[in-house]
């Protein structure tokens, strides 16, 4: 390598008054998007989520028994495309994705490069939260878009109301996209607290899937706490009308919406606070 | 210019850095030396706002680095060549860093070319050798064309051609009036690169002087020649003398 | 040939011939040296005791509470394999112990021992806690099933880690195989789900420990044994053939 190459790379050194300060939020968002986009595992995860939800809709829509023209009116068709089991897994996957977006930076050491490039840590976390939540919400929309027509065609002749304008469908689609966004932000908070990929993933699965299952199982009498977990709130908000065979624990009251909003707010606050406070 | 004042860091009951005060001047390459575990990396991390000092302060060009909105155009940094997500390509890694500071794609291509990674830029960093990762780290440091550059052990893993290239790069950057701060434990490398040395041991400042003056501390046989060049081996001998009491890890050491 | 063997120096005074017990001791040391092994084991024991004390159901071994133990045992087994790959320690280990089958056997022995102990501690806590309501009515068969569940999960965790090799993927894999599958697939559903869920260690164990389900006892024991053997074989065979 010759010296002239060295010279040319630094030829613009003289003046350094072009500093953009502070970083534009738009640029920070773009940078976080490049990180997510540039990883194969992100795309595998998206493909898996859509495939999983399509299969779940196809399976649950195809194994409906006991629906007669007489009782069809009392069955909420939304429980098939928005199957609880299927969306619990989607929520946990979104949360794992959020957790890894933070814990992965810490465990690889990339966080040091990131913070040296943008020393205002709160803004980095805000941009990351925005990108992660929007990505998760888009996956949620894609899953709904796949599940609704699949379940609809499986249920053809038995149940109707799964078209884009069906009763409760727009609300369920929005609530579902929000579920994944909220879960991903909870995951980010866990990732910021634990900072180790395996630990963060385990904690995420425990917090969002196993502990609620345990609390709600009747083993110990804490089902009230389990009813305030994101997936249960989602059930309450997205498909409680008309009377469905899958009873929701909470009525879709303003309270459910309030709790739905509290989860991401607290999560982002925790993530920002922890990252700002700790040495890296 | 980098200034530290009474910089101190305590972890529980260990004092890693103890009241360090020094200034790194622009226009020359300043070597940062110390035995393993002497607090070099902790000092660099505090300068960069990665670790919060227990006491004291560190300023880069008169400002606390944590208060800066963007960093790449102020300071170019290579702390650890492993500070990359192994699943991304070199190009994606640099693009993300550049974009966060409003730096364009063309600059990314340019620094990749400079460090000689253009051909492999789309491969996952996980498959890179240590030398290639060092080059990627240097590329990241150059991205913002900054007035201050900090390199922690940049020579590790580089091949002889790479070492010569890095040496020329550091000297060139300093000649342009930038502040270049290079930590290393390779004395022979410092002989070729540094103009000035800051030596610490046990977290305390041991020496802050020109290369020639420092080499003059070498005991007996190594004499300092009249020309500012340093006698081969003199620097290493001087380093051993100065750090004799503070080295934390020494081969054959017994409690 | 004799010239070559002569090059090997005589065993120095500080080393004796390495035995399998030495390998096991080394793995034992590796397992307990990071703080999280002890912390996680203690947390699981405390949590399970608390759950057992607040359990309103009149059964000795309440199934959902044991999910935590299954996860802990699975992760404990998984981390003995995956941390070696993630940190590159595996290269040092295999330089020290080139016979990989012996190495895996030693690892498995430690994992089986520790997870069996963990499971038995929980089982005793459950029995003590349930005495007022069920009069400590645990048969040796039930206790044995509890003791076997730990090792089955530990070995399954090792197999998942061997297949995944990546920290986060392994953690997610263990959570799916040991935790999410039994939650999502339940034997009361249709025929297909019924058969698949009965093949899971969780339901085989709950058949043996609390008598729920339709399996016969030998089938339940067979399922647990099949999981253990298959997991061990996966770990040994893959690790033996893989470049590290």
Helix-strand category of chain A:
mainly alpha
Which protein chains make the most extensive interface, counting residues with beta carbons within 8 Å of the other chain's beta carbons?
Answer: A-B, 49 and 57 residues
Count the E strands of chain C.
Answer: 0
Morphology of chain A: elongated
Keywords (chain C): Membrane, Transmembrane, Transmembrane helix
Protein name (chain C): ABC transporter permease
Transmembrane segments (chain C): 35-53, 65-82, 103-122, 142-160, 167-185, 219-239
Transmembrane segments (chain A): 43-61, 86-108, 129-152, 172-194, 206-226, 255-275
Q: Can you walk me through this structure?
A:
The complex is a heterotrimer of chains A (280), B (255) and C (244). Chain A has 280 residues and is mostly helical. In chain A, 69% of the residues lie in helices and 0% in strands. Chain A has 11 helices and no strands. Residues 1-8, 11-19 and 242-246 of chain A have low confidence and may be disordered. Chain B is of the alpha/beta class. Chain B has one domain (2-242): P-loop containing nucleotide triphosphate hydrolases (Rossmann fold), CATH 3.40.50. Chain B is built from 8 helices and 9 strands. Chain B has helices at residues 40-47, 90-100, 105-115, 130-142, 160-175, 187-193, 211-215, 234-242; strands at residues 2-11, 14-24, 28-33, 55-60, 75-78, 148-152, 179-183, 196-201, 204-210. In chain B, helix 2 (90-100) packs across helix 3 and helix 3 (105-115) packs across helix 4 (130-142). The radius of gyration of chain B is 18 Å and the shape is globular. Chain C has one domain (21-28, 59-91, 98-129, 137-241). Chain C has helices at residues 2-7, 20-32, 35-53, 63-87, 89-96, 100-134, 140-164, 167-184, 191-198, 201-210, 217-241. The longest helix of chain C is centred in the middle third of the chain and has 35 residues, at 100-134. Classes of the chains: A mainly alpha (280), B alpha/beta (255), C mainly alpha (244). Chains in contact: A-B, A-C. The interface between A and B is large, with 49 and 57 residues. Chain C: This is ABC transporter permease. Chain C: The chain crosses the membrane at residues 35-53, 65-82, 103-122, 142-160, 167-185, 219-239. Chain C: Keywords: Membrane, Transmembrane, Transmembrane helix. Chain C: It comes from Streptacidiphilus pinicola. Chain B: Keywords: ATP-binding, Nucleotide-binding, Transport.
